[in-house]
């Protein structure tokens, strides 16, 4: 055995002070905002940033290595909103390792959903599409997290990739929870699209909010025109602003120009208010249509039983 080989073995068996310090620091790391800022501070979004340098210095420290609170380096990077770091870590981890949860039951996708960076979610899901169905300890899944944190673009993306089968399973509890969170977050276009496809969600109780979409909507009068008081000049503008039919999806150039003009004139808030009222009316109309088709006695008994089971 040569001297060089012996030295290499010794270095592997007895890490340097620098490696030992990094290892100890990483092992004792807590997923608090202060720790995240330290690890994912300035320059951490670069390939040679602190987090990736940490992994590079200590070869035995795998990106999937769990630290305190059960999280991984990927959890830290996602929570800190470090897109490039997440992209590099995902390359180093297997599909199964992306499913690792912290002690609160959050996967890295759940963490990404709470910071609202859509490209981060796209990166994670490109390697493991099942992440959209993982629940944390609060029984929230990534789509619900995005709604709760009011990240519209993230919610739109996750809504497009979350399987309908998942939202409708277990008597639709997941779908009901999502629908209520979307209504509360005033993401009414998403809520209407889902409810229009699955109107039975109107009276479906969920096990998280312990309510149903109909009850949820009834507690939010501000979503309707009757729940808002406008000044005379605001009411005049409100009545004059045209609203496109909800069925249209892609914005036309002409409509984009009109919205920009409304913004320039300082009346876009009134336009958005009227648009919200329009969606609320359509949602309520959809709910009422579903309820009108139900057998009153059976539906009342079903709602009571579901509510009792939740409680």
From TrEMBL:
The highest taxon in the source lineage is: Eukaryota
Keyword Manganese set for record: no
User: What Gene3D superfamilies does the database record attribute to this sequence?
Assistant: Ankyrin repeat-containing domain
What InterPro entries does this protein map onto?
Ankyrin_rpt, Ankyrin_rpt-contain_sf
UniProt xrefs under SMART domains: ANK
> Which positions does the entry assign to ANK repeats?
69-91
Pfam families given for it? Answer: Ank_2
What are the record keywords, sorted? ANK repeat
Checking PANTHER family in the record gives: NO MECHANORECEPTOR POTENTIAL C, ISOFORM D-RELATED (PTHR24121), NON-SPECIFIC SERINE_THREONINE PROTEIN KINASE (PTHR24121:SF16)
Record's protein name: Uncharacterized protein
The species this protein belongs to is: Salix viminalis (Common osier)
């Amino acid at each position: 055995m040569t001297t060089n080989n012996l030295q290499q073995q010794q270095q592997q068996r007895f890490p340097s002070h620098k490696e030992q310090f990094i290892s100890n620091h990483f092992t004792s790391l807590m997923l608090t905002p202060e720790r995240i800022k330290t690890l994912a501070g300035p320059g951490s979004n670069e390939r040679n940033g602190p987090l990736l340098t940490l992994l590079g210095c200590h070869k035995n420290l795998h990106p999937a290595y769990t630290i305190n609170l059960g999280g991984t380096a990927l959890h830290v990077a996602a929570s800190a909103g470090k897109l490039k770091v997440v992209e590099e870590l995902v390359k180093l981890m297997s599909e199964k390792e992306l499913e690792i949860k912290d002690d609160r039951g959050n996967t890295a996708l759940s963490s990404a959903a709470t910071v609202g960076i859509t490209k981060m979610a796209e990166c994670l899901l490109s390697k493991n599409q099942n992440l959209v169905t993982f629940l944390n300890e609060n029984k929230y899944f990534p789509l619900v997290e995005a709604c709760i944190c009011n990240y519209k673009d993230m919610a739109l993306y996750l809504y497009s990739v979350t399987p309908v089968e998942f939202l409708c399973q277990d008597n639709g509890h997941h779908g009901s929870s999502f629908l209520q969170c979307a209504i509360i977050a005033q993401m009414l276009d998403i809520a209407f699209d889902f409810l229009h496809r699955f109107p039975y969600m109107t009276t479906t109780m969920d096990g998280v909010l312990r309510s149903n979409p109909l009850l949820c909507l009834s507690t939010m009068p501000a979503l309707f025109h009757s729940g808002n008081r406008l000044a005379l000049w605001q009411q005049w503008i409100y009545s004059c602003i045209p609203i496109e039919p909800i069925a249209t999806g892609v914005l036309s150039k002409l409509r984009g120009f009109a919205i920009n003009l409304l913004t320039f004139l300082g009346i876009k808030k009134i336009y958005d208010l009227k648009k919200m009222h329009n969606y609320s009316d359509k949602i309520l109309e959809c709910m009422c249509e579903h309820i009108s088709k139900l057998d009153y006695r059976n539906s009342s008994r079903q709602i009571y039983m579901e509510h009792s089971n939740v409680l």
